[in-house]
Design brief:
The protein is an all-beta fold. It contains no helices and five strands. The chain has a five-stranded antiparallel sheet with strand order 4-3-2-1-5, with no helix packed on it.
Length: 77
């Protein structure tokens, strides 16, 4: 496989769909872990996908802005 398998640890925006007291709000982003094939890594973003075809097509890619990325850990070659 041309693309390495990685886990990306990143902080995402989060919201609540319910009424709550302002004092309950933590102001902390949601820590996420995404595992997939690393398709592209640039100064602006990291792009991963859970599916890559034999002829090099992909679907369900996720582009994560670099500012949100904490760690990109390679799982295997």
């Amino acid at each position: 496989m041309k693309y390495p398998l990685v886990t990306v640890v990143w902080d995402d925006a989060c919201s609540s769909g319910r009424w709550q007291s302002i004092s309950e709000l933590t102001g902390v982003p949601k820590r996420c872990n995404t595992t997939g094939y690393l398709l592209k890594k640039t100064k602006e973003s990291v792009v991963v996908s859970h599916t890559v075809s034999a002829d090099g097509d992909t679907c369900c890619e996720l582009t994560i802005p670099t500012q949100m990325v904490k760690v990109v850990k390679r799982l295997r070659k």
